[in-house]
Amino acid sequence: MLKTNKAFSSFSVNDLAQAKDFYNNVLHLDVQDKNGWLELRVSGDTRILVYPKPNHTPASFTVLNFPVDDIVRSVADMKQEGVAFERYDDPGFKTDEDNIARHDGGPHMAWFTDPAGNIMSLMQDK
């Protein structure tokens, strides 16, 4: 019934102006104001809605993944833009000195948060 409709994702933030600055000026995404929400446009016509929520609680999971061709270069470039990457040191789940989790058989990943604390990642398929 729904497979012919274009689905899209959305998530909340606590400060729309701060989010707009981050997504536009740090991540360099196409950001449009849409009636009190933000619309992020990625990869052509893919859109993601970002909406303000006064009692926002950051997601405790990854809400958005960005595929990249070279994760080492992408992490370094984003660090130059002021993005801080997460460090994980759990059994079976660790990031290295470059803040990258290099999974055997899976994608390499690096996680960061937006100003509202939502978790996002860069992901490079092997």
TrEMBL record:
InterPro entries referenced in this protein's UniProt entry, alphabetically: Glyas_Bleomycin-R_OHBP_Dase, Glyas_Fos-R_dOase_dom, VOC_core
Family annotation (Pfam families): Glyoxalase
Organism taxonomic ancestry: Bacteria, Pseudomonadati, Bacteroidota, Cytophagia, Cytophagales
Protein name per Swiss-Prot or TrEMBL: VOC family protein
Domain VOC per the UniProt entry, residue ranges: 3-125
Protein origin, superkingdom: Bacteria
